[in-house]
C-alpha cells in the first residue's frame, strides 16, 4: 500500500514526500549555494533507494522481501554529526522507516516485532512531532491487527488489544492536533478579545 514518506531534509534540501512519484523525483535542492553534508546526502539517497525498493517488492506482494532493504537501512551505517550524535534528519528518517517496518511486520503477523519497531522509532522521533504521532497511529494499527488475529482463539485478549488500539489512535490524534496548532501562526491580537475590542486611541 502506497503511503506518505516524509524525509525532512535540511542542509539545502526541501522536505520530500513519496506518493505517486519516488522521493528521488520529488526531492530537489532548495538553495544550490548552501553547504551540504555529503554524508547526510549519501544517507538520504540510500534511504530513498531502500524505500523505493520496498515499494516495488510490496507492489509485487512480497512483504518479506520488502523488509530487507528497510531493515538494512536501519542497521546500516549512519552519519553522526560531530562524530557523536545523529542529525535530526537522520532520526526522522529512522523513525519513519521503523514505522513502515512495524506496519509490514504486523501485516505478516509478527506483532511483537512490530511493537519493538515502534518502540525503536519513538526513541528516534523525539518530542511532539509528526513522526511521534505517526508511530502511535502505527502502534494502534498493530494492536488492531492483533485483535483480529485473536478473535476466534482468545476473545478476551482480542478485546484488550482492541481497547489498546483505540487508546493509541486517540493519542495519535492528540499529538497531530498539537503539531498542527504549533505550526499554525495566529494573527496579531488573536486569542485576546480585549485587544481586538478596545477602541482606537484618539489622536491629540
Explain how this protein is built.
There is one protein chain. The chain is mainly alpha-helical and 204 residues long. The chain has a single domain, classed as Serine Threonine Protein Phosphatase 5, Tetratricopeptide repeat (Alpha Horseshoe). It is 63% helix and 4% strand. The chain is built from 8 helices and 4 strands. The strands form 2 sheets. The protein has a two-stranded antiparallel ribbon. Strands 3-4 form a two-stranded antiparallel sheet. β1 and β2 form a beta hairpin. It starts with 5 loop residues before the first strand and ends in a 7-residue tail after the last helix.
Brief overview:
The protein has 204 residues and is mainly alpha-helical. Helices cover 63% and strands 4% of the residues. The strands form 2 sheets. It has a two-stranded antiparallel sheet with strand order 1-2. Strands 3-4 form a two-stranded antiparallel sheet.
Question: Which helices and strands occur, and which strands form pairs?
Answer:
Blueprint: E1 6-7, E2 16-17, H1 23-26, H2 38-59, H3 63-75, E3 80-81, E4 85-86, H4 88-107, H5 111-125, H6 130-150, H7 155-183, H8 193-197
Antiparallel strand pairs: 1-2, 3-4
Helix pairs in contact: 2-3, 2-4, 3-4, 4-5, 4-6, 5-6, 6-7
